[in-house]
Amino acid sequence: MPEFFHRKLERSAIGFVLAIIAAASVGGIVEIAPLFTIDETVEEAPDMRVYTPLELSGRNIYVREGCYACHSQMIRTLRDEVERYGPYSLAVESQYDRPMLWGSKRTGPDLARVGGKYSDFWHVAHLINPRDVVPESNMPAYAFLARNRLRTDDLSGHLRAQRALGVPYTDEMIENAGRDAYGQAAPDSAAAPGVTERYGPATTVSAFDGVATQLTEMDALVAYLQVLGRLTDAAYRDTAAPEEAPDPAE
Amino acid sequence: MNATDRMIGRLTSGERQAALILCGLTALSGAALGLAGRNDVVGWHGLLMLLFAGGFGFLLMTRLDMAEPTEDRGASYYDDPIKAGIVLAMAWAVFGMFMGVWVAAQLAWPDLHFDNGWSTFGRLRPTHTTGVIFGFGGNALIATSFHVVQRTSRARLAGQVSPWFVLLGYNLFCLLAVTGYLLGITQSKEYAEAEWYADLWLVVVWVTYFVLYLRTIARRREPHIYVANWYFMAFIVVVAILHIVNNLALPISWGHAKSYTIWPGVQDAMVQWWYGHNAVAFFLTAGFLGMLYYYLPVRAQRPIFSYRLSILSFWGITFFYMWAGSHHLHYTALPHWVQTLGMTFSVMLLVPSWASAGNALLTLNGAWHRVRDDATLRFMMAAAVFYGLSTFEGSFLAIRPVNALSHYTDWTVGHVHAGALGWVALITFGSLYTLVPTLWKRERMYSAALVEVHFWLSIAGTLIYVFAMWNSGIIQGLMWRTYTEDGALAYSFVDSLVAMYPYYIARAFGGLLFLIGAVVGCYNMWMTVRAVPQATSRTGDQPVAAAVPGE
C-alpha cells in the first residue's frame, strides 16, 4: 500500500533526501546528457571562426551591461522572425559562446544578425544616445563607453581560459591578444595586418568608434555588434524552411 | 542591554570564540581576494567581505567577556536568527521592490538612469530580481524554515553558531551579487548572475544550511517528518544541485572577477533554463509551499485537507518540474525532441500544482468566516488562488504554439509577476503576519487595519501589473507577426515598442502600489515589536523534554 510505504519513508530524513535527489535527477539527466553525445545537436560549420580579442572584449561588455535583458540573439524557426531578422539561428553559431546570450525578452529587437546591418557610425551615434537616431527608443544611453579606455592587459588570460574550455585559440593568438585588440581598431597601424593574418581575411579592421588613436570600450562593443551573425554562413546554406506561426485560436 | 547584547549573550564563550574564528576566516578570504584582485574590480569585493566579516568580528570581540548564558537552552526554541531573518527579509523586500519600480519606470522614461553607467536598465534589472528573489524570498525562507522545522520537530535547532553563519553568510552572498551588478560584475546568466567567488561562497553557506536542517530533523521528537519539511528539504537539496551545475565556470585568474562558464552555446542554454525554471520550482515554489503547509493550517486553525494530496503533489512537483525547463527554448536551436519533452512535462505539472492549490483552499473549508475577517489568512488564501492561476498559465504558455506568440514578450513578465507577487510575496506576508506576533511574544499585530490596507494595496498592485503585461505582451506578439495584404510584415519593431508605453506606465504604477504595501507592512511589524504588549506566555511552544547531551 503506497500510503504505508510513504509513512515509512517519512521516518527517515536521509532516506527522504535520497528519494528527493533520485526523483529530481531524472529529468535533467535525460535532457542534458544526450546534448553532448548526439551529433545532430550542433551542425558542422568548417568556415566558423573564433571571436577576435576585440570582439571578445566587446562581448564581455555586452555581458557586463546586461544587454541580454532586452535583446535576444536567437531567431526562432518562425516565418515572421526569419523575415524580420534573417535566417533562423543554428546551434553551431553559438558553439563558442560562453555564456550563450539567446535572451528571453525583446524589449528591443533581436540582434543575432545585426552585424553589417548598420554602419559603425550609426552604432556609435545610437549607443551614445539612442533617441538621437530612433526617437521612440527607450534604450539607456551608453555614452560612457566612448570615454572608457578598453582594458587589454588581461586579454591573453581571457583567451587562455577560453582555450582551456575548448575554443581553438592558437598560442600565437593568445600571445598577441592585446596587440590584436589594438590593431583591429587602428587600420593604419603596424598591428593591423596581424589581425587578418590570424583571424582570417573576412575580419573587419576599422576605427569602430571613429577615433583610431585610442582604444575604447565603444570600439570593442561595436566590433562585437558588427560580427554578430557573421562568424559562419552556415545559416544561409541548406536549412529547412521556417514554420508558419501557428494560431493558437485555431 | 540592546538586542545585539542579548543575542550574543545567549552564546557560551566557546561559541563566541568559534563565531569569531569564522568571522576571521571569512575576513581572511576577503583579504586574500582583495589582494589577488587589487588590479581588478574584484578587489572591491574582497574589501566588502573583509568589512562585513570584520564588522561582525568586532561585535563579538567587544563582547567576549560577557557572562555565560544562565537559561536552560534545551528547554526553548532558538528564535534569535529567525527574528534577524525576518528583519532582513523585509529590508530586502523594500530594496528589491524599489529597484523594480525604478527599472519599470526606466522603460517608460528612459532618462531615469541619469547618464550613469551603474544605473542603466541592464545593471539595475538583476539587482531587482536578485533583491526580491534571493534577498526577500531567500531570507524569508531561511527564517520560516528555521521556525517551522523546530516547531514541527519539537526540537531546538541543532547549533548555536551555524544558524547565524547560514543567515549572515547568505546575506553576504546577496550583497556581493547586488553590488557586483552595479560594478559591472555579472555572468549574464539569468537569475544566476553572481560571479564565481560569490557562487563558491554560497556553496559553503548552503551546505551548512543543509547539514543544520538535516541534523535538526534528526533530533525530532515526532516519529514522522511533517509535510512542510519535505518541501523545505527539497528546496535546500535541489537548489544546491542546480546552483552548482549551472555555475560551473573557469575564472580568468584568482584575482579576476570574470569567469567563463564551462557550458557552451546550446548546452549552456539547456543547463541555464533547467536551472532557471527549477529556481522557480524549488526556490519560489517548493520553499513557499513549505510555508503554506505550516502557516495556513495554523492561522485557519484547521488541519490540512488531505494527506494523500500532499504526497501526490510533493512527488509530482519534485519529479515533473525538472523536465520542464526546455519550454523556455521553443523554436530555438535546441533539438526538437527536448522541446517536446519540456512541453509535455510542463502540461503534466498542472496536476500536482493544482493538487497543492486545491489542498490549500479545501483546508479553508469551515474557516471561510476567518478568511473574511482576517486579512492575514486572506493573504494566504489569495496566494493559493494566484498559485493555481499562475501554474495554469505556466502550463498554457509552455505549449509550443502558444509560446510562439508569448515568448520574448511582456506576457512572460506578467506571468512571472502573477507568481512572484500574487503567490510568493502574498504567502510570505501572510506567514510573516502570523509569525511576527508569535515570535516576539506579542498579543497581536500592531494594527489589523494596516494589514488590511497592505492586503488591498498588494492585490490592486498585482492586478494592475498583470493586466498591463497581458495586454502589452499579447499586443506585442500579435504586432510582430501581423502581415499586410501584400504579404509584408505590417509593423516595424519600433511600432510595437511605441504601443507598449501606456502599459509600461501602468505597470510601474502597479509595482509602486505593491511597494507601498510592503512599506506599510514594515511599519506595522516594527510597531508590533515596539508598542504591542507582551502576550501571556503560550503553553507548549517549547521543545519536548530532554536536552540533547553536549548542548
Furnish the topology, listing elements before pairings.
The complex is a heterodimer of chains A (250) and B (551).
Chain A: H1 2-9, H2 13-32, H3 53-64, H4 79-85, H5 120-128, H6 130-133, H7 144-147, H8 155-164, H9 171-175, H10 177-184, H11 192-199, H12 217-227
Helix pairs in contact in A: 3-10, 3-12, 5-12, 10-11
Chain B: H1 3-9, H2 13-36, H3 42-61, H4 80-108, H5 121-153, H6 162-183, H7 196-218, H8 227-246, E1 249-251, E2 259-261, H9 265-300, H10 307-320, H11 336-348, H12 350-363, H13 368-373, H14 375-397, H15 400-406, H16 410-439, H17 448-481, H18 493-498, H19 501-531
Antiparallel strand pairs in B: 1-2
Helix pairs in contact in B: 2-3, 3-6, 4-5, 4-6, 4-19, 5-6, 5-9, 5-16, 6-7, 7-8, 8-9, 8-10, 9-14, 9-16, 10-12, 12-14, 14-16, 14-17, 16-17, 16-19, 17-19
Short description:
The complex is a heterodimer of chains A (250) and B (551). Chain A has helices at 2-9, 13-32, 53-64, 79-85, 120-128, 130-133, 144-147, 155-164, 171-175, 177-184, 192-199, 217-227.
Structure, explained:
The complex is a heterodimer of chains A (250) and B (551). Chain A has 250 residues and is mostly helical. Chain A has one domain (53-238): Cytochrome c-like domain (Cytochrome Bc1 Complex, Chain D, domain 2, Orthogonal Bundle), CATH 1.10.760. Chain A has helices at 2-9, 13-32, 53-64, 79-85, 120-128, 130-133, 144-147, 155-164, 171-175, 177-184, 192-199, 217-227. In chain A, helix 3 crosses helix 12 (217-227). Chain B has a two-stranded antiparallel ribbon with strand order 1-2. Chain B has helices at 3-9, 13-36, 42-61, 80-108, 121-153, 162-183, 196-218, 227-246, 265-300, 307-320, 336-348, 350-363, 368-373, 375-397, 400-406, 410-439, 448-481, 493-498, 501-531, and strands spanning 249-251, 259-261. Chain B has 2 domains: 16-65; 79-531, Up-down Bundle (Cytochrome C Oxidase, Chain A), CATH 1.20.210. In chain B, a hairpin with a 7-residue loop joins strand 1 (249-251) and strand 2. The model of chain B is unreliable at 547-551 (pLDDT under 50).
